């Protein structure tokens, strides 16, 4: 593989204390434009000579190119973090894959501060003037969120389509789950247990998504206000 001429100026802010999410997306895209993402994301893709003690000319060139691109990726990551963040990757700055994982480990943690910020953002929501907002509507939204969050990664495209709905009304959501399950059955694709259980004809109240503790009370007429009155999202 040919090496890359690095002439593109980084078009996004360096990594600081509070911008890891956007930085990681931008940095991934940036490394891809420089043809350096594979050495960062998939170190197992490195060329493996048949005989490490007796490399052919072509194998020697492939190994040399790979190592050169590793150095380029490491340098780009190092230059894309603020000075205060470099301490986290100083010991592994010759390996872009280890640098990437270390930064993720540092910034994506399940610590009390992370949970506090998440709850603070939720509880900081305020009702707009004229907005129809009740405890039941909040229950509806949180239940819908729990159903969506329980889906495994292979349903990401389906989740993206759900977020295009005009609302996350529970009945609409269950209809969407039922349709997706039906489509997967028609195509001979196994549906996730989470999807099947949520889409089933039985009451959603009996369904418990992975990682979510739900407390329910009995239904009152046709209202969905019987849905859970508390959610503990273990993802926080």
UniProtKB/TrEMBL annotation:
It comes from Neolentinus lepideus HHB14362 ss-1. This is DUF4219 domain-containing protein.
